[in-house]
Amino acid sequence: MKTERDMQYEINEWFAEMIRDEEYQYNDGGRSDSGRKGTAGDCVCRAIAIALELPYDQVYRELAQANKEAGGKRSARNGLYRSVYEAYLNKHGWVWHSAPKFDGRKARFNDLPQGRLIARMARHVAAVIDGKLHDTWDSRHKMVYGYFAKGN
Question: What's the predicted TM-score (pTM) here?
Answer without folding.
Answer: 0.83
